[in-house]
């Protein structure tokens, strides 16, 4: 096994990890604030990819337009879903909300299948990002490098936003105790909408980013969703740092697994998760409180 | 200032407040006393809109509170310090203090005054809420509400579990709050503390107000204290 192959796999793990990070960030902040496990998160990610496809194929044939407006559109769509659907369900037991998100996932998948067919749609790498870059020790596709950098910047942005701004402090406070935020005179429902929009926007961004390197099909969110639950369990529910570290760990485990023996790659992360649940059920950065 | 009229509140099927009526006037520091489970905390939560009453009226000034959301009630000038203090553990002390929306730039209790009366908070401004001791959490919970320019402050057992010197400290702070023209409604289990700080007392017994009286009368009425509070 050459050093270059190992380096390549490490970077591929980073790619996979990046997508996990973007998805679990959203999954995790939505869970933290609303206590909802959003089964439709993978479907929102898939919609992000289809939004990018629709923009580049029918509206304006430019990847960068899709890159900017795809996530914004998805964020707005997520916020609208919160206002029109989810808000009605908060008073019910969490199980109902989970069932609802499950139904939403099925509905989104079938709607996309009806419109675009079950074969998936083609999506090209933007021309400016074709080819490879010489990293000194190996050549690596430009687009994949771009994906890693965008994810790193996004994670940094989300972290700065949550830890340094007043709005971020409100979101953290809402995650800690949303009832008390309300009792301090702050209209929590607007923050809830924002959090939902932000989470879905990140899922949308992940969808746009993977469109050129993955099959864009109506089922593309399914596998990723399950893996993201692994990430969230390992990182800790509701934790930003946990989503980032957990996402990268899971990505690398799969990439390393492929190097050793491909059939075991996906099984490895579930074994890892099972071990984690036994030893440290709240995950790397999860708070004790969620397991009371 | 605050007037409850025949307030009935339920937790699911169980009837907790069975027609509570009482009044707190401007400039007063009043208490709600009573045994565990009598309905003291529920009364505060009903006023705050956290557990909305099914029947009755709660007037704050001239405005009806029943039917309003907690954030609307809070922004009318009601501050609530819950029993569990509800400090946000992942926010720093300063972030906790800055969280409530500030309406006026010039406030009765600006940060400077807060630091003067709560020196321990100034020392720990950048510590996370999760790193504070019980006493520090209580101080922060009170200070956080004071930054909101409130007219009425409701505290749920602020002395619970605190060392005697901290209980004294809280008593001093309550007097200072009263001096700054903020009305205080205090829920207490510690009858001695209540007698030391308050002007007026109400005893809740089985979801109703069973006794009301001035501090001068209540303080010496051992019979009432034994009957309802078992002291």
Notes on the protein architecture:
Chain A contains ten helices and two strands, in the order ααααββαααααα. Chain A has helices spanning 3-34, 41-59, 63-84, 94-116, 142-164, 166-183, 188-210, 220-235, 240-260, 265-279, and strands spanning 132-134, 139-141. A two-stranded antiparallel ribbon of chain A has the order 1-2. The termini of chain A are far apart. Chain B has one domain (2-229): 3-Layer(aba) Sandwich (Rossmann fold), CATH 3.40.50.300. In chain B, 36% of the residues lie in helices and 26% in strands. The longest helix of chain B is centred in the C-terminal third of the chain and has 16 residues, at 164-179. Chain B is globular, with a radius of gyration of 17 Å. The model of chain B has no long low-confidence stretch (mean pLDDT 92). At the A-B interface, helix 6 of A face helix 2 of B.
Can you identify the CATH class of chain B?
Alpha Beta
Q: Which CATH architecture of chain B? A: 3-Layer(aba) Sandwich
The major beta sheet of chain A can be summarized as:
2 strands, antiparallel
Class computed from helices, strands and strand pairing of chain A:
mainly alpha
* Strand portion of chain B: 25-35%
How far is the first residue's CA from the last residue's CA of chain B?
A: 31 Å
Low-confidence stretches of chain A: none
- How much of the polypeptide of chain A forms β-strand, as a percent range? under 5%
Mean pLDDT of chain A: 90
Instruction: Estimate percent helicity of chain B.
Output: 25-40%
Strand order across the largest sheet of chain A: 1-2
Number of strands of chain B: 10
The protein's oligomeric status is: heterodimer
Kindly provide the radius of gyration of chain A, computed on alpha-carbon positions and rounded to a whole number of angstroms. Answer: 19 Å
Structural class of chain B: alpha/beta
User: How far apart lie the N and C ends of chain A?
Assistant: 47 Å
Return the CATH topology of chain B: Rossmann fold
Radius of gyration of chain B: 17 Å
